[in-house]
Predict the 3D structure of the following.
Amino acid sequence: MEQIIVPDAINLEDDAVVILWEDAHRSPFPHRYLRLRCPCANCVDEMSGKRTLDPDTVPSDVKALDQLPAGKYGIQFLWSDAHYTGIYTYKVLRAACPCIICGEARAKVNNSNGNSADGGAGDLPAGDANPS
């Protein structure tokens, strides 16, 4: 069974949601970067998995205002645009870490598999994929 790395702390800072993991890794998620990755049924088609959230409908200054644990496997955020239904699993959050180290690791894996490296940004506009 796969061991899930869990956070030691989740801090809502002015410019990012910062997760400090139990293995001492630090993941700084810009607010909009995370909001655009909301996994709820309003933002992702449940049957196809296709992202249905239009990035243009999410304010550029959206912020996580509060957080709530979702069992022992994830977290839910209350966003400044009043969205709150997505549960972000720790496994998904760790895989989407936007730090340089994780981006380089994803690029290596993608290149060795013959895939194009997008740094984990998926189908997001380039301006939202990079932490600032």
